[in-house]
Give the backbone structure.
Amino acid sequence: MREIKISPVLNGWIVNVGCGTVVFTDIKKMTGELIRYYAAPEKVENEYMRDAINKPGPIPGPNIEEFCLRPGGRTASQAA
């Protein structure tokens, strides 16, 4: 599980989970997603990456996992 930071803004909340950022405009949706994340962090992270509207583009060198380490400083492939 990654560090979570919630920042209120004028029309919602910005939620930073590790190096990922998600924006919510509904507090019930936000809290529901946080509960889901606490129950199954890796599953929820994979869903958010799979369904992302603005997916990261190609990164020279290591892939995106190298920039967003899993707990213990391991990438997803090392953790598997």
About this structure: The radius of gyration is 13 Å. The chain has one domain: 4-79.
